[in-house]
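Tutorial, part two.
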Amino acid sequence: MKIMLTFQEENKIIRNIGEVFINNDINHLSKEGYNFLYLCNGFIAHYDRYGFIANYSVYSLAQDILRNKNQNQYNNFSKGDKDFEYYMQKKRIYNKICGFASGDKRYKLPKLEDCIVPIREITSYTIDNCSYDEVLSDYKNHLAFGNYFNCTDEQRAIDLTDATLMCRYLLKDEKLSVIMNQKFKFSSGNEDTIYSLLNCYRDSIYDIFEKYTEI
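Running the prediction step on this input gives:
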């Protein structure tokens, strides 16, 4: 399942990574910028955003982005193929980032107002036939024994569980693409889209999400 970014989310990534190069400061890299870059072809996984930042200077990041450009064009996809639009969006974002990495002054940052994603409060949802503890246990086991450096973060599992059961409930009346790209404030205080939350853990986390949302 490949969910495209919203207009605001796309601009937010481009603006953030563009600011890294304009300000010559790798510490400007946000969670959204990191999540996009480390999933691009040619980049290796790091423990977290801080590990990624520690591994790069602005210069070395620019060099890797430009060096990996050809690997992120997705020329093996044709119109009509499954997920064609998804990969073309990734290509478009990557190529704009390359403009900033190369120092091309023709590239301008997206307007700040075009990067703001409205936040939606989580109020309540119906678990239906799902057990909250069962969903939470599946996510905790996945984070502990999956490809996440054998590390369990209790709050991550709780946020994933809340997002899954909330999406299951909202799917009765709303489209999946709208729910996934809407920004929510979780009980932990974290603010994120369900898409971004899931995307932190690569595609394997979707198996649990799909199991309980019945997509």
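The mean pLDDT is 84. In part three we will examine how such features are distributed along the chain.
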